[in-house]
Sequence to fold (72 residues):
Amino acid sequence: MASEALFDTVLRLTFDNGVNEKGEPVFKKKAFSNVKTQVNSDQLLMTAQAIAGLQTKPLTEVQRQDTKIITA
Fold:
């Protein structure tokens, strides 16, 4: 039977960067690696909001990307 172990977590933030010449929304994304794998969603959201407070563009989305290792 296969087993899995959490290997890595990346915090991805998306910011509203205005609109292009066609009037379509433009987004800027930033990724933060080396995030502790045991953090919970509330902790990540608080971190994202703290980082967003240092930015000039408004935060539109917060994502957590987990990478797992699967072994036999």
